[in-house]
Amino acid sequence: MTEAMFGVLALLVLAWVVTSDLLARANITGPLFFTVAGFLIGSHDWKHLTVEVDAPSVHLVAEVTLALLLFADAARVDFSRLRQDIYLPGRLLGIGLPLSVVLGSLLAAWLFDDFTWAVAGFVGATLAPTDAALSAQVINDRRIPMRLRRALNVESGLNDGIVTPVVTFTLAVAAGQLGPGEKEGFLADGGALLELAVGLVVGLVIGRGSAKLLVFGLRRRWTSTEARGLATLAAALGSFAIALTLSGNGFIAAFVAGLAFRAGLGGALLDTEGTDGTAAADDVVELPELLGEILAFVVWFLFGAALVPIAIDNFDLPLLAYAVLSLTVVRIVPVAASLVGKGLDGRTVLFLGWFGPRGLASVVFALLAIEELGTTGSVQPAIAAVALTVLMSVVLHGVSAGPLGGWYVRHEQAHDDSGPGPRSRRPAHRQLGRR
Length: 435
Prior knowledge:
mainly alpha
């Protein structure tokens, strides 16, 4: 990535900020804006404005971005509040996510004859995590019941971290299956498990230790309120970098560090400041989250410049069929199966099933596959399948978030208004939604 390209990216971020509300009213999201800009600018020969998909700087930016967002998402999970309404996100993560991985992998193996089971598993796992940023209008729409918005938000915040070990394992096996003369596996002889274990330990130690150090300083008034965010940013970047230094998985380290950091804070901020502990803990995470969101725009630009052309070059009917089925059947069927017996009507299940957009994590996993496996053999069609699915998700979920959110609210209100009998006889999930 050249200096000229970096300057163009900075100006694009400025342009997005200035017009963000105007574009939002037209259902144009940030990912869509930067993907189109990346394709128009970065995928063509503009001399100094070029992006190489295998450039180390491209992979570094993408990986740091995902690490920051993994940490921030994990650190924002308030388990004390989540326990009050755990069944929706718990079922989506515990039942729906594994079913999505399996179904997506089986579909890839069926549609693409040259895929090994490891490559098919990589595609299925890479496209299983969701990204709430692509349907932010739904997450922020206060007319939609809080429990539904919380379920989608918590699911998207945790599923990319949960699925990372599966992606790592399938990449390790796929690297070993390339055969003589190809790039050797980046992990072998149990290295995948060791990498995950190192990441887990590093994340626990740094996340928990950072939280305890921060609380220690705050209680003794050694730490200024304004500097707290820097401590959180240091914990996020430190866990990622140290795990990589020790040949561990940086993504697992950042994700676990976020969970351990939030658990380490506990009610300490309430004790030290006399304010709402949850709000104070959320404020501490703002800096890494903000930096991650800014870098996410860069990753979407790189996606449009480097990965979208691969999808176009490899486009065919099986590829299109996989992308369409991945966004519909592979998502909606597991969601419906995970919510059986929970008293949700079909409209709500379809609503939750549709708003499972594929986003940043899938892009970073695809770039990681290129870094580790290259683009030989079946790897390029696999990258194309991921890229086309994410591209369609960016467009379809981004454009439909506002209209379908309004549609859902209108139909739910109409159903409540026309429902027979007193309010106490209506389904329990609607009473909870109203409260």
